Amino acid sequence: MKIIIAPDSFKGTLTSAEVCDVVESAFKSVASEIKVIKLPVSDGGEGMTEAVITSSGGRRVYVNVTGPNFQTVEACYAISDDGSTAVMEMASASGLLLTEKGSTPDKTTTYGTGQLLLDALDRGCKHIILGVGGSATNDAGVGMAAALGVKFMDSFGNGIALTGGGLADLAAIDASGLNEKLKDVSVAVACDVDNVLYGPDGAAYIFAPQKGADAAMVERLDQNLMHFADVLFDFTGKRTDGIKGLGAAGGICASLLAFSNSELRRGIDIVLDYADFDNIIEDADYVITGEGRIDAQTLGGKVVGGVAARAARKSVPVIAIGGGVLCANDELLKFYGQGVLAVFSTAQIPESFEELKPKCREYLYRTAESIARLITYRKP
Questions:
Q1: Can you give the chain as a three-state secondary structure string?
Q2: CATH code given to domain 48-268
Q3: Each residue of 321-355: pLDDT tens digit?
Q4: Residue 129 clears pLDDT 90, i.e. is over it
């Protein structure tokens, strides 16, 4: 029997690699002869770099960059063994967890993310995978683009502040200094939201409050993004109106599309392609996947939904494990209709997250062991 273990992290408790190890140990305790392939994955958010290194190899690269509050931070990304591909998370350089006390998205920058991209270019990478989850910014990616050589100027020809607030002063864009190496590099952007750049469903209104913006600031930031879109069109001819996904990560995708050979894709699809998932599961009997919380949103671009969709094409049944399963019966039916054979919760009794946290490894082991007993049972 061949089992593929392909989970996301159980956020706040176990990394995806740790989940793989626990599930493997439980399965091997039941039937040591089972062939297990561990494939820690991610939907493009936190943990993507680590998941890719663990499942597909590569090495970590550490770079000192400009953090979201213009402080120096050490960021990390991965380079494939052959040196052709870089895998990085925006959060490593411009993430919300890196912000200082009192930080607001009108004063944060994506400059450090641009420095990560620049470092990968200088190392000769031809393909870049960028996860844009967990950002602290709302600058439409001007900081990132500036690090790559684009100039953003006010009406006097002076450089603007490379922040969400600085966009209000933008009057001209000069991309003549854009790094030449970008022309020969493809950028796959792991983007799992459909929000547009500005407006009621845009970056500012939907995400800026999570980054410290009050109602008045949200309105200003939204106006600044609209202004940026107008200036961008005037100087580059690139339109951003109504394009789904450009509202992710404070609008960084707008600059990525304008100044690089970028494509926005679901993060889980990028990660599964990179790991050669479709070929790996070809002769598998089951795929075990999971994440910390399984709910009505899980099928919409999350790991469980992405893994199930790919496995269904190969007619390989999927079993999902969640730290908690918060689905009504009709919602569970959707899982069953999309290739998921069964859904299990590791929670044993009603407990708070803080109570569950120290027991999560044990609970996951017990659940995986029960699944292993069920699927390996043979009538005497």
A1: CEEEECCCCECCCECHHHHHHHHHHHHHHHCCCCEEEECCCCCCCCCHHHHHHHHHCCEEEEEEEECCCCCEEEEEEEECCCCCEEEEECHHHHEHHHCCCCCCCCCCCCHHHHHHHHHHHHCCCCEEEEECCCECCCCCCHHHHHHCCCEEECCCCCECCCCCCHHHHCCEEECCCCCHHHHHCEEEEECCCCCCCCCCCCHHHHHHHHHCCCHHHHHHHHHHHHHHHHHHHHHHCCCCCCCCCCCHHHHHHHHHHHHCEEEEECHHHHHHHHCCHHHHCCCCCEEEEEEEEEECCCCCCCHHHHHHHHHHHCCCCEEEEEEEEECCHHHHHHHHCCCEEEEEECCCCCCCHHHHHHHHHHHHHHHHHHHHHHHHCCCC
A2: 3.90.1510.10
A3: 998 887 777 887 888 888 899 999 998 777 777 87
A4: yes
Percent of the chain with pLDDT over 70: 99
pLDDT tens-digit series, residues 81-107: 999 999 999 999 999 999 999 999 999
Confidence bin at 238 (pLDDT 50/70/90): very high
Longest dimension (CA), the chain: 85
Pick the CATH number of 2-41+276-376 from 3.40.50.10350, 3.40.1370.10, 3.30.110.10, 3.30.1390.20: 3.40.50.10350
107, 166 in Cβ contact below 8 A? no
Q: Whole-structure pTM over 0.70, yes or no?
A: yes
Handedness of CA 141, 143, 145, 151 (dihedral sign): positive
Q: State both tokens at 25.
A: 């140990």
Lowest mean pLDDT among 10-19, 237-246, 329-338: 329-338
Q: How far apart are CA 221 and CA 205, in angstroms?
A: 9
Give the separation between CA 117 and CA 289, rounded to whole angstroms. 31
Q: Parse the chain into domains and list their residue ranges.
A: 2-41+276-376, 48-268
Cα dihedral 299→201→129→15 (10° resolution)? -50
